[in-house]
Amino acid sequence: MRRLLLLALVGLGAQLVDGSLGMAYGVTSTTLLLAIGTNPAAASATVHLAEIGTTLVSGASHWKFGNVDWKVVAKIGIPGAVGAFAGATFLSGLSTETAAPLMSIILLALGLYILVRFTTFGLPKGNLGKPLRKRFLAPLGVVAGFVDSTGGGGWGPVGTPAILASGRLEPRKTIGSIDTSEFLVAVAASLGFFVGIGSENINFTWVAALLIGGVIAAPLAAWLVRHIPPRVLGSAVGGIIILTNIRTLLRSDWIDAPDNVRYTVYAVIYVVWAAALAYSIRAYLANREQERLDLETALASGPTDDEKAATPAP
Fold first, then answer.
1. Is 304 within a domain?
2. H or E element: which one contains 192?
3. Is residue 22 part of a domain?
4. What is the pTM of this model?
């Protein structure tokens, strides 16, 4: 019973973070299952089965709050499902330890870009509103879906930073669209695992516990992402990406850093991340106050000559 309660709490916390920042449900939940002795394929299958429910509720919640771009969902979700099914069916037994550090370097670079860009300048607006092309989203979806099913998580960590870095979709819609399209990935991966390993290795009670926690958190996360300012949200996402991928690199065979080195690096990252978030919040509040003063000044000065000329005579 204690283990089931822990799984439910992990599902709740993981979905709260995932629905707010566009990543971490799979990685967090799979890590716990592996820590208690579940084999990798069964752990990934368990998480993806739970994600069918959590992503459905999360997607509906994001849609309700206007956080979803359905064109992006279709362009990235369908290729993502193909990649997830292939990974789960044919490659679930293949270790991704060799590829993980290389992927982490790429994601780390994207995370640094996002953290610096959003913290320093706020939401990039040069490309905002421009369409995201299928030739960009389709390969991204296949790779993210493959990594997600073989690694027990990765749809958000791969998809979210790549779309954010393009500057074409605001953070809340990036996160909402990634979370919504993950439903297709979860269904495809689950089908692939049923074909590859069957259902006998899956503990459906654990699936239910993770699902219940995630379903409870999904609507709250969708509400949060709509109300958190884009500048602050971008800084938060950037920090999560950096921390996650630094952890992967330091624990990989490439580096295999000792505990004292890893904990020191983590502490430095936390301090820098906290400072970046504080700066983003102060800058956002200052900009909002300036906008309020500008509006009051404009109202006090009355209509401009152009506005007077455009006003029809009585």
1. no
2. helix 171-197
3. yes
4. 0.69
